[in-house]
Design brief:
The protein has about 230 residues and is α/β, with parallel strands linked by helices. It is built from seven helices and ten strands. The chain has a six-stranded mixed sheet, sandwiched between helices. Helix 3 packs parallel to helix 5. The longest helix has 18 residues. It is globular. The structure holds adenosine-5'-triphosphate and magnesium ion. The site of adenosine-5'-triphosphate has 12 residues, from strand 2 and helix 1. It comes from Pedobacter polaris. This is ABC transporter ATP-binding protein. InterPro entries: AAA+_ATPase, ABC_transporter-like_ATP-bd, ABC_transporter-like_CS, ABC_transpr_LolD-like, MacB-like_ATP-bd, P-loop_NTPase.
C-alpha cells in the first residue's frame, strides 16, 4: 500500500536554560493511504507533540517527516503551511478557533484559502453535519466546549483533506454526540478514503481503527492491529 506519512528517527527536545527535555525519543512510524490509526498513551507522553510534527505544524529536533511524498523538514514555514492547506485537516485538542470570527466564518477560512466560490454554502452544510446549523452566527466564546470542538471538526473536514489528524476529537462530547462525530470521521474514511490519525483515550473509538499505537514517555511501546490484541 502507498505510504502517506513516513516518520523516521524523529525526536523532539525542548531546551530551557541548561536543561533539555526529550518529549519524543526516536519515533519511527509509517502510515498507509486510507488507513485508520489511533494513538493512545498517558497524559504528557507526547501524543499532541507527535501529531503536530506529523501534520507539519511544528518541526522535529532530529529525524524526518515525509507527508504525501514531501519531506517537511527542509521546508520553510510558508511552504509547510501550503502543504497543510492542500492535504491536512487538524482537529486541535484546544480547538484553536479564531475568536474574532463566527462559527460559520471559522469554517469558511480554509475554503476561502483554497479559492472556493461558494464557501458560505459549503461551510453551512458542514456546520449542519456536525449539528450546529443554528449556531453559525455565534462567536467561539458564545459556544460550549463541545460546540467549539464540533466547529473545529467542521473546519478540519472542509478542505477534504487526504490526511485528517484529530487530537481527542470526542474529549468534550456526550456519548450521543460523540457517536455522531465518530461516524462522520469514519464516513470520511469510507467515502473519500481520508486517512485518519486519531489521538484518543476512548478505547471503544481506538478499537474501531485498523491500528493502535501506544506511546509512553515519548516512545512507541506498541503498534498493533486490534483484531490481534
Ligand atoms: N513548548 C514546550 N516546551 C517545553 N515542554 C513542552 C512544550 N510542549 C509540550 N511540552 C512537554 O511535552 C510533554 C508532552 O506533551 P504533549 O502535549 O505532547 O502530551 P500529550 O500526550 O498530548 O498529553 P495529554 O494527554 O495531556 O494531552 C509534556 O510533558 C509537556 O509538558
Ligand atoms: Mg495532548
Amino acid at each position: 500500500m502507498e505510504t502517506i506519512l513516513d516518520i523516521k528517527n524523529v525526536s523532539k527536545i525542548y531546551q530551557s536554560g541548561n536543561h533539555s527535555l526529550t518529549v519524543l525519543d526516536d519515533i519511527n512510524l509509517s502510515i498507509s493511504k486510507g488507513d485508520t490509526v489511533a494513538i493512545t498513551g498517558p497524559s504528557g507522553s507526547g501524543k499532541t507533540t507527535l501529531l503536530g510534527l506529523c501534520a507539519g505544524l511544528d518541526r522535529s529536533t532530529t529525524g524526518s517527516v515525509t507527508l504525501n511524498g514531501t519531506a517537511l523538514d527542509s521546508l520553510s514555514e510558508d511552504q509547510r503551511a501550503a502543504v497543510r492547506n492542500q492535504y491536512v485537516g487538524f482537529i486541535f485538542q484546544n480547538f484553536q478557533l479564531l475568536p474574532t470570527l463566527t462559527a460559520l466564518e471559522n469554517v469558511m477560512v480554509p475554503l476561502e484559502l483554497r479559492g472556493s466560490k461558494n464557501s458560505r454554502a459549503q461551510a453551512l452544510d458542514l456546520l449542519g453535519k456536525v449539528g450546529l446549523a443554528d449556531r453559525a452566527a455565534h462567536y467561539p466564546v458564545q459556544l460550549s466546549g463541545g460546540e467549539q470542538q464540533r466547529v473545529s471538526l467542521a473546519r478540519a473536514f472542509s478542505n477534504q483533506p487526504a490526511l485528517l489528524f484529530a487530537d481527542e476529537p470526542t474529549g468534550n462530547l456526550d456519548a450521543e454526540t460523540s457517536e455522531k462525530i465518530i461516524k462522520l470521521l469514519f464516513d470520511l474514511n469510507t467515502d473519500a478514503g481520508t486517512t485518519l490519525v486519531i489521538v484518543t483515550h476512548d478505547l471503544d473509538l481506538a478499537a474501531r481503527t485498523n491500528r493502535i499505537i501506544k506511546i509512553k514517555g515519548g516512545q512507541i511501546i506498541a503498534n498493533e492491529s486490534p483484531t490481534y490484541v
